[in-house]
Amino acid sequence: MITASPTPRLSPPTAGWRELWRDAITDAGELLAAVGLAHRPDLLPPGDEGFPLRVPRGFVARMRQGDAADPLLLQVLPRAQEAATADGFSVDAVGDMASRAGHGVLHKYDGRVLLIASGSCAVNCRYCFRRHFPYGEEIAAAAQWREALAHLHADHSIREVILSGGDPLSLATHKLQELTRGLADLPHVIRLRIHTRLPIVLPERVDDAFIDWLSALPVQKVVVLHANHANEFDAAVDAACARLRAAGATLLNQSVLLRGVNDDVDALTALCERSFAAGVLPYYLHQLDKVQGAAHFEIDDDRALELLEGLRGRLPGYLVPRLVRELPGDPSKRPIADFAR
Ligand SMILES: *Cc1c(COP(=O)(O)O)cnc(C)c1O
Ligand code: SF4
Could you tell me what reaction this enzyme catalyses (predicted)? Predict the structure, then answer.
């Protein structure tokens, strides 16, 4: 029987990513209530957070109900431990606050130029160096971007432009379009890389306009995502990853090793397996930047190497991330195994 039903919608009408962004949870009490927890005594007093709580509701929905040790919750909940100071932890752990906060163009490594395209993020991760950055919403303002383009024109050793932040996907797609318009005149730049956590924490960001922009870029595309735990992936994240791949992007994931979140072999194995199920290859496993307020997340290098050894025993080689740390003045990320220890 042929019925005259209307064409079915592929997806239900949903709020745009900007509305979802604005609708993020910013209050600790509301966050705890949303995951079925009572108030806990170990929170930073409101007003003392400095770096405010911010987490999209879709990410909160992936937290386990009633679990005070949930690995997603611990990444975003401002706890009193952040107020502690610790030796070796400073406000400028990677030594480039001046350049990051200044013109937003970082050319530290051969062949790659990193552009701080935006200072905003949809989520505030408690371990992030960004907690101490006073930079504004849109670092790569037009004048600065012209300066960056001049730099790219003059230096033919630059093969790759990296959009980073903050989160570059916090920019409207038309802004991204403006940023990348000049790339077509730079034949030596053959790759565009995007470092972003948005497809994980707010997968709705990967919308039609964004995919149109990405597909049309005249260069090879790499998207480096940031997920620290398998539970950060769900059907919406899978769909966003599938769209990114269909647009021609190679997908990689970087994670930060975090005490209480992913510092065991089972959790890391699950993360690598789960990201590959979404078509994302593990790239880096970072030792955290030693920023003030993050010391309670730290894992020492011996334990980190043990965890890596455990991963090697359980996963195919291509699913084992590179364990690295970033140190001021280094010409690349530094593999932990090479440390003179
Ligand atoms: C991390 C980083 C890069 C990229 O390094 P890869 O090892 O290629 O991922 C480039 N520039 C800067 C300033 C960086 O911090
Ligand atoms: S830069 Fe990355 S780690 Fe830092 S707050 Fe933004 S999303 Fe989180």
Answer: L-lysine = D-beta-lysine
